[in-house]
Automatic annotation (TrEMBL):
InterPro entries: Acyl-CoA_Oxase/DH_mid-dom_sf, AcylCoA_DH/ox_N, AcylCoA_DH/ox_N_sf, AcylCoA_DH/oxidase_NM_dom_sf, Diverse_Acyl-CoA_DH. Pfam families: Acyl-CoA_dh_N. One of its GO terms (molecular function) is flavin adenine dinucleotide binding. Coiled coil: none annotated. The lineage of its organism: unclassified sequences, metagenomes, ecological metagenomes. This is Acyl-CoA dehydrogenase/oxidase N-terminal domain-containing protein.
């Protein structure tokens, strides 16, 4: 794939979720009752459209400008600001996260498909969503009620972000 096009085979993805995995059957469970086949396919179609139309145009500029440190704060390319906000506003950044804290609660497979589209469009932006979701899930699983109340909803709304901290001196961290 060149840096000037993004190709996603929506027909193949639709086949995988409807015919092969038959994800529409998940709505027989209480947890996914609102996610029938049509809803899942619409989510994938719109998530991919968001990745292509909103995220992908930021790829080249954000790669050129990168991140920088200003007055002790990390700054990212301005071209990422609106797609970041829009992803949270529309729910794409927290698509599979717990509805209890503001996520959509979609099946993980649907979240992975949309995340893969966003990552393909601009991995730098996609990492914000993936790392934040992972950090929030860590708090949701192991954190105290006070930590859950203080952080998770704000993370799923894009007010706070999460990170991955590595401690592997031999690996450059």
């Amino acid at each position: 794939m060149s840096s000037t096009d993004l190709t996603l085979d929506q027909r193949d993805i639709s086949f995988a979720i409807s015919e092969w995995l038959q994800l529409g059957k998940l709505n027989n469970s209480e947890k996914y009752a609102e996610f029938d086949q049509d809803t899942l396919e619409m989510m994938v179609k719109e998530g991919i459209r968001f990745a292509i139309e909103v995220v992908f145009p930021t790829r080249a500029e954000s790669d050129r400008k990168g991140c920088r440190m200003e007055e002790g704060r990390v700054k990212v390319s301005e071209c990422l600001h609106k797609p970041f906000q829009k992803a949270y506003e529309l729910g794409w950044a927290s698509i599979s996260d717990s509805p209890e804290y503001g996520g959509m609660g979609a099946p993980a497979t649907i979240g992975l498909i949309v995340s893969e589209a966003i990552n393909g469009a601009n991995l730098g932006l996609g990492m914000f969503f993936g790392l934040t979701s992972g950090a929030a899930k860590l708090i949701e699983t192991y954190g105290s009620d006070m930590l859950k109340e203080k952080y998770i909803a704000k993370m799923f709304q894009g007010q706070y972000t999460g990170t991955m901290c590595l401690s592997e001196p031999h690996a450059g961290s």
